[in-house]
Amino acid sequence: MVASEIRALFAVAARPEVVSLAGGMPCISALPLDAVGELAGQLVADRGAVALQYGTGQGDPGLREGICDVMSLEGIKAHPDEIVVTVGSQQGLDLLTRIFVDPGDVVLAEGPSYVGALGTFASYQAAVVHVPMDDRGLIPGALAETLSRLATAGRQPKFLYTCPSFHNPAGVTLDQSRRSAVLDVCQRAGLPVIEDNPYGLLGFEGEPARALRADDADGVIYLGTFSKTIAPGLRVGWALAPAGVRDKLVLAAESAVLCHSSLAQLMVREYLATQPWREQVKVFRELYRERRDAMLDALAARMPVGCRWTSPSGGFYVWLGLPPGVDAKAMLPRAIAARVAYVPGTGFYAGGQGGDHLRLSYCFPEPSRIREGVRRLAEVIAAEVELRSTFGSPASLDSSASSVTSASFVTSASSASPDAQANPAAAAADPVQ
Amino acid sequence: MSDLGHVLVLAGGLSAERAVSLRSGDRIRDALCDAGVEAVIADADAALIPAITADPPTAVFPAIHGACGEDGSIREVLALLDVPYVGSTASASRSAFDKPTAKAILGAAGVHTPASVTLPRDTFHDLGAGAVLERVVARLGLPLFVKPARGGSALGATRVLTEAELPNAMMSCFGYGDTALVEQYVSGTEIAVSVLDLGDGPQALPAVEIQPVGGGSYDYAARYTAGQTEFYTPARLTTEVAAEVAEVAVTVHQVLGLRDLSRTDFIVADGEVFFLEANVAPGMTETSTLPMALAAAGRDLGVTCRELLLLAVARAGLPWH
Asked: What's the predicted TM-score (pTM) here?
């Protein structure tokens, strides 16, 4: 199945009849929209001459001070001068790739990795080498082995791109002991780290994890965003980088957009200054926790034998492994016909592997819709297993040979209900719980 | 000022061809507006019947592809609502949309079509896929072309060169429907012939020759990605063959009982014309062949669509002024 066919199927997925477990859209309706609207109106009325004027390439100084407060929750001590405001963290990644990468250069990324990052790397003709993960995140030993292998081949990667907390798409978090190990490997190799942390404050258990950047100010470039803690429509993110990189980022940002939206920056600045944003983050956390629970409960109750999935402790995503021989991309038309959508795992690997997984998002649909979506998906997977069985489970339609190992996660296969294990098709047909 | 009042262009739907349909609908709407017709897009969803009931359009131009749009269902609903619409009736649409049915009807009428078998998914499950596929290959030989019995835009369609490729092709096909049409693959020139009937009988428009760049299949990407397929209008056929495809296209239109407009896809191999499928809601995108054929015939798309809407209104016996 080619990319244009997948785009065609997603045109259907956007319809309300379809339960979309595909997109990672934050739940904006949980924001105090009246307050945000009032804030925006007041901002234009009081400071419109500034809010609607050009700004600087580095971004509003007051906003950058507010960003320092936000990052302090993850143990980062930074000065506003070290920050460059970007159009979401996506632009930060784009600019960094532009600065660091020439065509053919190697960059490292977890396998699987954020699809938007892979798109950026592809646009700069970088060669992505994936590093395996497990349920505790990136595997430091595998990272060291990958670096060693590349060194033997005379290749020095330009950076490691990693999403350590509540990974997109895997949903796993790099545990604390591994964080120092990953930093140690990278420091010894002289490898810069780009830490992409959009979900870091959206954990369901305890305090936010300590950012990699908190323990390595020179080797880690941190990308942050307000897309998940306020709203993605504002398109306000930032990069926190050592001075040399920061200066290049400012020049690159000015070259790309001259300056960022003054209105959006001042809105975020005012929001941070006048609204109970920490409390609002807690509201988001509770909302997403409820939806995560709905998804995990439904998966445990419905999924056929052979499926396995991650249990995220924050963020938006569950990474679901399919029974042997089932291909997520080939199954997508059947899922759309059954009115449920997901993202095939192939989108999260540079080489097209990952067809044995799919990404489910629980952030946007309400719990009842999540349960219904999982019910539909379970039926589709059960039917797919039967189809594969009928045709002798030939080789996956879309998987391509690759030396990169797909992620191996400790998952919840054993949590499938006894009935589901005995008779997956019958269990999948059960009414919604 | 339009003498048609306001018309609806139906586009979207929930089939895998939704994206194509939206592009077709946009183009028809824009062309109608250029021709002075007040046209708006409507989707086939729960809001449609209340909208039509509250403010009945003078007529509807269905541009929904795939199921719902071409299987007759939306046309049945339009008939229930007493709304004039362009194109074939629900009954004729059903016959045309189901490829095995259309092939059987046309085969009986003397139209050549590749040898084929039609097999539902359950058959493979119940009788064993290996044994069934073995008989399919024994009967039809190789290469084969596997496609869903109902559907369009080449979604789920695969050319099969070896027996080993067949199971994957079947599974891909069953992604888009529960019944597969397995045809002998006929290698030749792909031709699309549109038929237009503006009240004086069906006329074939100039044939369009389809040649995917690089010699690949005319798959979904080749159909809807600009530059991936070269089109020749009129097709590079001999005078005799061009006349024959035109005649067969009109025959298809008539035998299947189609109305107003249709598009029939053929393969021409060694001068022989093979029917592949007929479409009652032909694509109207920038890379679709019916608009190309209209242009080659010197016809404006918007004016033609407007004339078809006027015909639909006249057919319903309703005043439109």
From this structure: 0.87
